[in-house]
Every structure is written in structure tokens, then in C-alpha cells.
Amino acid sequence: MDEVLARIPHMLAARYSLLYALSPEEERVERGIERMCAQNGLAYYRWRHTTGIRGADLADAEATRDPAAALERIASIEGPALFVFEDLHTSIGDISVTRRLRDLEPELGARRQAILVLSSTLVIPAELEKDFAVLDVPLPTRKEVARVLAVLLQSQKIDLKADLFEAFVTASLGLTEKEIKRAYARVLVDGKRFGAPDLALLIDEKARLLRRSRFLEFIRPEVGAGDIGGLGNLKDWLRQRQAGFSDRARAFGLPEPKGLFLLGVQGCGKSLSAKAVADLWRVPLLRLDVAALFTGRAEEGLRDTIRIAESIAPAVLWIDEIEKAFLQDQGGGRVFGAFLTWMQEKTKPVFVVATANEVRALPPELLRKGRFDEIFFVDLPNIHERLEILDIHVRRRGREPDQFDLLHIAEETEKFSGAELEQLIIAAMFMAFSAERELRQDDLVRVARDSVPLAVTMDDRLKELREWARPRARPASVDTRRISFFADWEAT
Questions:
Q1: How far apart are CA 303 and CA 248, in angstroms?
Q2: 383-456: CATH number
């Protein structure tokens, strides 16, 4: 914020006399403006509809509640000054206000004065569009959030480890100063001491901001990396970038992670991986509804989507089946082209996780270097991964894996996807439940042998997908054949 406000004295010197500051934080911006005016020898005046103009040398504030009267009054004030109008956006379209602003504009510039409209919404009449300079005041920076948290911790005599302190600062980015203080107060009211579980309160605050979006859905990631079987290469890649949004990473010379493209077979963990990223990195997960975005006023919807996603950053933006967006873009590719440009040039920490099942619908510009940090191919699980997936789902449903020969089931389920393995467990449990007995090994075997995995009926398409991905994508799974080879070699 200070960098934006520091531009105001230079703008006054250059005779910019009508300014518009966009921010939902009146109190925070007021403090910054007052401080900036004191440092630069500018008289500071504030107008509100409820109080009129208030300033050091004004005694008739009550008489200036009407905006037109307030504008008339400041015409008689001499010397460098900044007049902050906080409610003017509600009446700026009135002809008496618009006309007076146009008349005042050259006079204010000559006196090194300016009117600054402070509002969370941009309302500028067409007649004044060329006269106003718009300042977009950012939400609290990492440095500002760290200062707020440090002051609170000191007052409460709480000693927080450096990594947890940084995690709270990162989770607080994208909230207003007031929202941050409220979330911290909730932690204290609950009698907690800023432990790792308390980070969820900050995620809840960010989730509340998404209720006004038609295209973004807040997803609570109920799974972590440990709930996903296999995909060892992908998990290692994610863990290496777990602190990618931190100050330590910037100081080390690293850029912020941009995004991840997951291409592969249906039901093999692409969507679960998107959820695992948010859980592992402790940031909100937003799902973009592609169908809703590309229906109706897509360009306006895209701008709103980007603005909201960036306002609560750092965050993970999940775009499921991204290839459908190209098929639905009725603007000749213009809308999705703008989205790709944002992905290439974005400066806010919004990590994009895109998934796709159909490679033939993907244009080459989507996979160009710079859009995503890495492209992973998620294939059908190998026998080791199938064993791990079966183990996870058996445990999730209250059974001990040691009670079953899961290796035998893993051998019986070649070409099964992770989702199909989960359904195998569920189907076998229904079989046991209907017979009013406990789940048995033969239930699992029977369901495995009776099931026909999707990969069998779509074998040609799967081969085509693998051929396309081999030179273009990194395998998400560890090559267990190499591991087995070296294990056997060492044993000889």
C-alpha cells in the first residue's frame, strides 16, 4: 500500500487533481494517507456523507454534508492539500457533482491539490473517465501481515516457531487487515495458541469471499498426499515446492510456483492430486466451473474470476478437464487466449492445477513452456501402486489390510484405475453386508474377476494417450521396473 500512496505527491506535482483509490479498507488506507500527507507537507481533509468535511482549519463541517456544497467549500482552500472523499461514489453521477468536479479540476491542479475518491467500487461517469487516475490499493502485503502477527504474539507472550509464523503469514495473504485481526482474535478466543490446526480459520475466512462468485467454488480438501496411492514422482515434486511461496524461497532466488498440468487416464488420481496440493501447501483450493465461465458474458466472468482468485492468493486454482474450455469458447478462442496470457504473466501466487483426459483437443500453445512448471502423465497404477491403493481403501472403511491377501487382489486387477479399485472394495462390502456377514477375501476376488475395467474397452485410446505423452510429459509414478532390477542385482 505504501508504494501506491507514495505516488500521490508526484501525481500532484504533475497536476493530477482527480484520483480514485480502489480499496475495501477505509481505516487502513486513511492511516496510510494521513501518514503520507504529514511526510510530504500536504494538508489532509476528509469528507463523509455523515460528517461533511473535516480538517484542521474547518469550523463549518456540518454545512458540507451535501457533496456539491463540500466541493464548493474546498474551492476556497489554499495551499497543497489532499481531499479524501469516502462516500462520493454514491452521488458522483449527479449532474451538479459531475459539473463541479470538471470545473474544479484545473484549479486544483494549479494549487497542487487533489480530490481522492476512496471506495471499494469503481464508479466514474463517462464525462470524467479521462480526468480520473485510478489507484488500485493492494491488500496487506507479507511484510504488513507479519507486522500485525508479530505485534499480537508479543502482546499475548506467544512464542511461535519461524516456519509456523511464516505459514500463518502466508495463509493470511488475500484478507483485509480487519479480516486478519478477526481471524487471529478467533484463535485467541478459542483458547488456542496459534498451532498448525488453527490455520483452518484463515482458510474459512477466504472461503467466505467466494460466495459472490458464480464461477469459483471453494473445495475443502479432505484428502492429503498420504491418501493417494502411488504417484511417487508427483508427490516428491510437490513436497519439494511446499515452501515455494515463502520469503525463504524468494531469498534463495526461486520464483513462485506457477502451475501443474496433469494428463492421464480417467479415475487415476488427477482430481485427488489437485486436492492434495492444497492440503500439503496449506492454501485454499478453488475449483473453476469451466462450463459456467464460457456460457454468457465469458470475458467479464474471466476478469471477475482472476480478480477473486488473486485477491485470496496464495491459492490453488483447479481447472478440471481443461480441454472442454476450448470446445466451449464461442469467442473464437479470444477468452481462453486471455486466460493463457494471464497464466504466462501472472504475478500473484495463484497455482493452477489443470487436468485433461483428451489430448486431441489440446492446442499446442497450452503446453508451451512458461504456462506450467511441469506436465505429468498419470497412467494406470502398476501392481505396487494397486497394492497401496487397496490398502488405503481397506483402512478407510475400518478394516485391517493384514486380514486380506491384497497382493493377490492387486495381481487380479491389472488395468484397473484407482477409482475402480475403490469401487471394488465398496462392491465387495455390499456383497458381505447383504449376506449379513463380515467382508472376506473371496468377496474381493469375486468382484475383481467379474469387473471389466474401462481401460480394457478403451485400449486403443489408452495406447494413443501413452504415445502422445511419452515425449511430452513426465511420468507421475516411479518406474518400479528399475527399482526391481537394481534390487535383484544387489541381491546377486
A1: 31
A2: 1.10.8.60
At which residue does the C-alpha cell 455523515 appear? 50
**217-377 has the same fold as 2-136:** yes
Provide the H-helix boundaries in 126-255: 142-156, 162-172, 177-189, 199-209, 232-240, 247-251
Please state, in angstroms and rounded to a whole number, the distance separating the CA atoms of residues 415 and 418: 10
Query: 217-377: what fold?
Result: Rossmann fold (3.40.50)
* pLDDT tens track for 268-314: 888 888 888 888 887 888 888 777 776 666 676 777 778 778 877 78
- Alpha-carbon distance of 4 to 314, in angstroms, equals 21
**CB-CB contact of 88 with 117 (8 Å):** yes
* pTM score of the predicted model: 0.66
Domain boundaries, the chain: 2-136, 142-209, 217-377, 383-456
For 2-136, CATH number out of 2.60.120.10, 3.20.20.30, 3.40.50.300, 2.60.40.4070 equals: 3.40.50.300
Query: What's the pLDDT tens digit per position in 168-204?
Result: 888 887 788 888 888 888 888 877 778 877 887 777 7
Cα angle value 475/479/484 (rounded, 5°): 175
- Diameter over CA atoms, the chain: 97
How far apart (Å, rounded) are the C-alpha atoms in residues 353 and 17?
44
